[in-house]
Design goal:
Layout: H1 3-6, H2 9-19, E1 24-28, E2 39-45, E3 51-58, H3 59-69, H4 74-83, H5 88-100, H6 102-106, E4 114-119, H7 127-133, E5 139-146, E6 150-158
Antiparallel strand pairs: 1-5, 2-3, 2-4, 3-6, 5-6
């Protein structure tokens, strides 16, 4: 899938820059492989309630964007990311970020979408969502740097 049909690094950067109180830079990874680290997964559903797209963030990136949304100090987000834990406040903020990221998911050509759920690292993933995650087409992966916080991975995928 090409960047123009899904969204671009510029669109990811622009959306997150608008939302967060810090600079964000995204760059598309030329050969997106599987994200082999814990991740939060936003599941987007169509009007019928079926999962049709996901936006996933590596645990570090999830902590950085969740913290930056309400200006939680970078050291708190970095410590959470290093320990592999998350605070309730940061996770609550992450839900808000994923809710806004529906705008990126809609660029996948799936029509009107809503955030159905967020799956945290270690939580079970239903077969419907796993089918989307297993799709190697219709997928873009970005390296996202949140100024003063750090860098992590974001992926956008849709069910083919």
């Amino acid at each position: 899938m090409n960047a123009t049909s899904v969204g671009s690094a510029h669109e990811v950067s622009a959306l997150l820059n608008t939302l967060l109180a810090t600079d964000v830079t995204a760059r598309e990874l030329p050969e997106p492989g599987a994200v082999n680290e814990p991740q939060f997964i936003a599941v987007y559903a169509n009007d019928a309630g079926a999962a049709v797209a996901v936006c996933s963030c590596s645990l570090p990136l999830a902590m950085y964007v969740g913290a930056a949304l309400s200006m939680i100090p970078p050291r708190v987000a970095i410590e959470n990311a290093e320990k592999g834990v998350s605070s309730n406040e940061i996770v609550s903020n992450l839900h808000e970020v994923f809710n806004i990221c529906v705008n990126l998911a809609q660029s996948l050509g799936t029509g009107r979408l809503t955030l159905r759920e967020v799956v945290a690292p270690g939580e079970p993933i239903c077969a419907e969502v796993q089918a989307i995650l297993d799709t190697q087409t219709d997928r873009l992966v970005f390296e996202v740097e949140v100024d003063k916080y750090g860098t992590g991975i974001m992926a956008l995928q849709r069910l083919s």
